[in-house]
Amino acid sequence: MLAGRGGDEAAYRAFLTHASSYLRGWARAGLARAGRSASDAEDIVQETLIALHTRRHTWDDAQPVGPWLHGIARHKLIDALRKRGAHGHLSVDEFAEIIPAPSHEPDLPESDILRMAAALPDRQASIVRSIFVDGKRTAEVAASLGMKE
Q1: What's the DSSP call for residue 57?
Q2: Can you tell me the distance from the alpha carbon of 37 to that of 70, in angstroms, rounded to the nearest whole number?
Q3: pLDDT tens digits, residue range 23-71?
Q4: How many helices and strands, by DSSP H and E, does the chain display?
Q5: Is CB count within 10 Å lower at the N or C end of the chain?
Q6: What's the pTM?
Q7: DSSP symbol at 120
Q8: d(CA 92, CA 99)
Q9: CB burial of residue 48 (10 Å; 0-12, 13-18, 19+)
Q10: CB atoms within 10 A of CB 99
Q11: Where are the alpha helices (DSSP H) in 34-137?
């Protein structure tokens, strides 16, 4: 993001690609927690990326970019739920997630995750897809499969 704001188009494109991958899983998980279909996830990702692009000047480069990006995404998710007529009470706290500490592990595109998961036994592949593609929490996946975390 920093290099992108400095004019490095390739770095900015790489940042947006990485952010898109993260946002896609996050939006699916947020929609699932709200009892909604993941079909709106791509709209939320696109709205978030547009907001990120138009507001990138508001990011304080002395701070991590993750919480700033997450704040924008959370607002876009809540807006999408409101716009599509969310029923019942939605607490903003339900969507307050902790941004994980930066990992030194390489991020993989969804297509790579799916390709590698296909080589696993069915149950293991299901776990990998649920956590790394659908964005479900470990406890949720374990409970759905009747196993310990």
Answers
A1: G
A2: 21
A3: 998 898 888 888 887 888 899 999 999 999 998 888 888 888 888 898 8
A4: 7, 0
A5: C
A6: 0.56
A7: S
A8: 16
A9: buried
A10: 15
A11: 41-55, 65-83, 110-117, 122-132
